[in-house]
Amino acid sequence: MDLEVRHLRALCAIADTGSLHQAARRLGVSQPSLTTQLRRIENSLGAELFRRERTGCRPTPLGRSVLSRARPLVDGMTALVAEAKAEADAVRADGPRLRIGCTASRVIGAWLRRLRIRMPDTDISLRVDVSAHALLRTVEAGRLDVAFVHEVEGCPLAVPEGLEQRVLIDREPQFISMARDHPAAARPVVDLVDLAADRWMVDPTVDGEWDGLRRVFGAAGLAPTVLHGDYLTAASLVVLGEAVAPCQPTSGPRDDMAIRPLRDDPLAVRLLLVSRPGADMDPAYEELRAAYREAAQRVAGYHQWLLRNRSPLARTP
Questions:
Q1: Half-sphere exposure of residue 18, counting CA atoms within 13 Å on the CB side?
Q2: If DSSP codes are grouped into helix, strand and coil, which group holds residue 19?
Q3: Burial letters for 153-172: b for 16+ Cβ neighbours within 10 Å, e otherwise?
Q4: Is beta strand 175-179 parallel, antiparallel or unpaired with respect to 268-275?
Q5: Which residues contact 168 (CB under 8 A, 6 or more apart)?
Q6: What share of the chain is helix, strand, coil (3-state, %, to 5)?
Q7: CA 212 to chain centre
Q8: Which of 3, 133, 159, 177 has the greatest count of CB atoms below 10 A from its CB?
Q9: Higher pLDDT, 317 or 161
Q10: d(CA 186, CA 96)
Q11: Helices and strands per DSSP (H, E), number in the chain
Q12: Are 44 and 36 in contact (CB under 8 A)?
């Protein structure tokens, strides 16, 4: 049996809900049908992807590996369909439009809300992609007007010639997420060496993230175990104490995990807004900066970091 996107979507639903019954409801199919489909997928791959337990379904090690590759494909197909529909609607619609793209960020919701308030008559569409380079190519091709992307320190982006760019944050530190009961969670600032014995999780599909992390490990003379997978899976492993993972400093507080800055901020990214030639970037940039400032000041740990480093973002405009 050849695996199709619908099969991958079923696997993701089972993992997300932890239950064949709940996954079947989400997918709009019967539980026996989904059970049969899962058995056929596992037979095709030659091993179990989920352990059936009394409390539900949990991914096996192979299941976690398959899910880490399946999620980007499912998300990509979802984004492709949504983008195609949005472009088709835009072709039919009259009036101004703004097509924005971005890599994952905690500020996207607030940015969109501010843009819609500022430009109520503009048709605003959004495309999210793990790959900054894919977004930049889409801007170059004229299918996006602006893209908000991050550039991992030490791994410069190949910005296509002719695109205009504006720096939002020249150096944003990356914090670390860990289990609440991790020994290092008791300290306000964590040393990299204190995490050397941990398993680290990184998404290799995000441009530059694995290379950037490897560069930092090499500079510190460390060689921790690294797991590759998407950050949704990473969060579940972090909560269970199975891994630690880099995260954005604007990540809000959670009851089930601790988020701490690293001493001397060895991990960092640069945040950029890139646009096609001639596009009016000012409204998008101004609202993005305002949304980012709000997010930064709302998270106590990051706000304290900004104050310590005398960042202008720590000041109320």
A1: 7
A2: coil
A3: bebebebeeebebbebbeeb
A4: unpaired
A5: 148, 271, 272, 273, 285, 288, 289, 292
A6: 45, 20, 35
A7: 16
A8: 177
A9: 161
A10: 51
A11: 10, 12
A12: no
Q: Are strands 226-228 and 175-179 parallel, antiparallel or unpaired?
A: unpaired
> Concatenated DSSP letters for 57-109?
EEE-HHHHHHHHHHHHHHHHHHHHHHHHHHHHHHHH--S-EEEEEE-S-TTHH
Strand 257-260 and strand 175-179: pairing?
antiparallel
Tell me the per-residue pLDDT of 101-130, one tens digit each, with 9 for 90 and over: 999 898 999 999 999 999 998 999 999 988
- Give how far Cα 74 sits from Cα of 70, 81, 271, Å: 6, 11, 26
- pLDDT one-digit tens code per residue, 130-178: 889 989 998 998 889 999 999 999 999 999 999 999 999 999 999 999 9
Q: How far apart are CA 149 and CA 207, in angstroms?
A: 10
What lies within 8 Å, CB to CB, of 278 at 6+ separation is none
- pLDDT tens, position by position, 263-297: 999 999 999 999 988 888 899 999 999 999 999 98
Q: Which helix (H) or strand (E) holds 176?
A: strand 175-179
Is the separation of the CB atoms in 153 and 268 below 8 Å?
yes
Distance (Å, whole) CA 299 – CA 306 = 11
- Residue 246 contacts by C-beta under 8 Å, 6 or more apart in sequence? 174, 175, 176, 177, 202, 209, 213, 267
Q: Find the length of the chain.
A: 317
Torsion of CA 235, 239, 240, 244, to 10 degrees: 70
Identify the sign of the CA torsion 74, 80, 81, 83. Answer: positive
Angle between helices 20-27 and 5-17 (to 10 degrees): 130
* CB-CB neighbours of 269 under 10 Å: 24
Helix (H, G, I), strand (E, B) or coil at 20: helix
